[in-house]
């Protein structure tokens, strides 16, 4: 599906210049986003195609909701940066009271603990740009550079939540907050692994071709680039969104075909999962990874992403719950507890299934086919003994016995090969979920710590560590965090339902085929014996 | 199928007496052999039914070949005893030169060894009746009481061999010597095990009902009666025919339903195999077991059978190869070697299959269903975790997951129960054959010892231990033994082909059903997931 765009200003095409005239308010379809030079190729409702200035239209990657403000284009993503924006949750880019700071470590609330013993400091808000933020995990939430949102290097847009229903699963009731989803779901194909080398062939590596469905233009990436992307996404979104690990690094045997194929499959699954996430898929760093134009573009984008300060809990500052009331503490706690219980239980369930699956895999590739092989050999052996009887008229029996024996040998091979056909995807999906679920304890930990801090707020007010107004802001922000967690859980549930439906269907389909094929083979073997 | 009989003498029915007139040479069908009082009920070709004197007809239990001589009736079997008969192989019931004697032990040729050191004795031929013969395994071959065949208490008829083709298996070539088979195959049903007691309830036992297809009249037997029959058959036929052991004796748990059922099934298989053997099935002792009239009849028959002197190698004296030339030593040796190799190889093959089968049985009833159960539980567990998500709209998934889980639990049960349905009969048949094959080394041992003795014959003639005429007789008798062994092997092969065809069909049929049922169950489980 092609992306739609809304025309923001009238534009009149210059004749003979391959341009398309558009009117404000008109909806057009982007047919090529990669024209460059500030132009897009688009098609209007009458089917006419032509070039339109990028700045004159608003591309809508996350739905049809219009967001106030001007449009400016980044290198590749069509992101909205608001000139002056204050979110409904109370975030703004003015030098707001900086309550939630993270100095270092992974706990965004560590500063509170520090302050509890050493006095509350508000100075971080005024900390100059470029100071220890980003990669080390230190991050600022609710604060940024002073005054101007332009200076804010976040995801470039508020991550909006709205109370939409899930579109994948029939759902008669409201599921609660959900992320705003793009009309067209991003996806990409990871394929065509090629051996590359550098330093005059001294260093070899495998390069994968990654082709997004938006541009249909392949870009090349090595595993280490995926790893770089993972680190960026983890830094940037890890507090709100589980970012599953990449498939295992491996040094030995990494040029073996089997390994490359497996890694590619897992990178594909990881990328697809990231593409399916509305927040991640529309982020600048992710778009850079998928659609960089050339080496220079890639390097510049990398540098920019590495300097991104909207990392850690700062991600919550970019989230705007839309048209929903603030949640009270009790509700937040209940939701958090519910998610904690669920993810823990599912983690156990998934691990249990994985253990069972691994054992079944072992049996299916080890003793079981050996046994079928031995049954097959025993029949064939008996057949050749019978053949040596010197008794006339048993060719039918010995042929049938040999055929039956061979059938069991075929079954042995089928049994041994079957796990790759069915158990494999079940295991891969569950492994993916194991990875995802492994991220939740931290996400939920951040959440729980925030709850504790809000619970302490009264004491902080009493000891004049914070003002009553700051306490209100804290609660408001916790409400946003909760909405974010709920949206993420809903995203998780939605995709979980889809994934498990799909993988179970796949598994059972292959299982049915497997047993049907065996039955068919045995039916044939049976037919070769004489009916007397 | 009803037995046919040939009318030996004209008989004119007395009016109003329910009799049937018959003419010499006419073929009639016996409709009731158990009329008693010297009468049979028979039907002629025009469909008329009436009574005919037993002595006027020759019932043909082993085919249509007419045997010269008069017909006399034993208690229940319709056996031919020839008034004066000399078999083509040179056996006769006159006081023939007694060359082959067995004094004691199982080696019928032991006397030669004894004589080699202690002088050759011909005296055994004149040994009075009732002297140490029979049960202890000592037996006389080629000798019997003097002069009169009436005194000979053997199987009551010569066991005839003829070069018939197998009737079971399409066979384009002559298979060599075969036993003469009855037109109607004897069979019986072992059923209805009942607990009986004696000594005022102090001793309990299980009594089985045995119903032969000839009389359709059930008789009762305890396991110990079967065991008695086994001992009689082993004594009488063991040198020529493999008599497989009975199912294991068991003292503890022998009143448990499962055990009784299993023992009954095995007694049935054993009885059916005995019934299928033309020599055994037509023997007096076997007929007594199946058709005794009352307790007195049974006891008398038992006493008679226990006194039977035609035991051990004596059985060969009752075998008459029909219309075939004597075999030379080389041929005899070659055949013997061939059978020895084959039975050894088949014994190995059968044991191998049994080992494989036992392991498969263990896996099918042990770890495999446990694994399917665990898979089933893991799916159901995941389903109940999903159910606790609080997310709306996943009832379809959780229901389907539960159903899939239950399906795998059902499969677990199916897997565990399957061996009883298919592997069981395969194992039982192979166990039967293991038992049969275990008898061959002894049978072949008897044969090989006879070959060695015939090889030594020249030396014996040279040292005047035997006359040249006796040497010729020895060779002739060895030829008969070889024909007997060949007939037995052909019987074995014929039934082996039938049995393995049948059991493999049964096995594969059940296997097909098993896999089809699983596929069907999984197809149903699959259909419950949403197609998206």
UniProtKB/TrEMBL annotation, chains A, B:
Give the Polar residues compositional bias ranges: 133-147
Which PROSITE patterns does the record match to this protein? PX, SH3
Which compartment or compartments is the protein found in? Cytoplasmic vesicle membrane
Biological processes per GO annotation: cleavage furrow formation; endocytosis; endosomal transport; intracellular protein transport; mitotic cytokinesis; plasma membrane tubulation
Q: Which Gene3D superfamilies match?
A: Arfaptin homology (AH) domain/BAR domain (1.20.1270.60), Phox-like domain (3.30.1520.10), SH3 Domains (2.30.30.40)
Cross-referenced SUPFAM superfamilies = PX domain, SH3-domain
Q: Which domain of life is it from?
A: Eukaryota
> From the UniProt record, which GO molecular function terms apply?
phosphatidylinositol binding
The topology of this chain with respect to the membrane is:
Peripheral membrane protein
Alphabetized, the UniProt keywords read:
Cytoplasmic vesicle, Membrane, Protein transport, SH3 domain, Transport
User: What SMART domains does this protein's entry cite?
Assistant: PX, SH3
Binding-site residues for a 1,2-diacyl-sn-glycero-3-phospho-(1D-myo-inositol-4,5-bisphosphate), renumbered to this chain: 222, 224, 263
Residues of the PX domain = 186-296
Q: Which residues form the SH3 domain?
A: 1-62
Show the GO cellular component annotation of the record. Answer: cytoplasmic vesicle membrane; plasma membrane
Q: Where is the stretch described as Disordered?
A: 128-152
The UniProt family comment states: Belongs to the sorting nexin family.
Q: What's the protein called, per UniProt?
A: Sorting nexin
This protein's encoding gene: snx9b
